[in-house]
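Tutorial handout. Part one gives the primary structure; part two gives the three-dimensional structure as tokens.
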Amino acid sequence: MTAPVVAEARPGRPAAAAPSRGRRRYAVSARVAAALAFASAAVTLYWTLGGTAGLDTLGGTFEKLARSRSAASIGLGAMVVIAKLAAAALALALLRGPARLLARTAIVGGALLALYGAVLVGAGALVLTGIIDPSAPVDEYGLRWHVAFWDLWFLLWGIALGVGGWHAQRARPAG
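Part two.
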């Protein structure tokens, strides 16, 4: 067995153990999840505040809702921004230490985000390939964007958050 790597002590401070491999893993995953969450919140905030660039990539109901500029659509957009910022805060909170409840919340939240993204990517791909023939007309341009970008974003964000939580939970000291 090798001794743990110890960081050089600073005057007035004891030497600290170098970050463990598990700590580095959940730190990277948590930072990726936070970056994806903040970026998603920024895009949603832009559209909520009236921005229109890229709205055509949403297609369907979401595009119509964002373009309506009604009080309900602005309120919904604001709630979505807050939820995405809360998810970013959860990811960043993992960096403070591997608290059991925090890690489990990240695992569950990540699983839900990943499942949401995976289901939408899969369903959209089935429609685009013609395996599923929807009864209503489909905005293929918007659907392509969802399959290749928007819904994939949720899938990757969820994986990063879940992996961060999983590694944080495993990095907890015994007892």
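Part three, for discussion. The first helix runs from residue 21 to 48. DSSP finds five helices and no strands in the chain.
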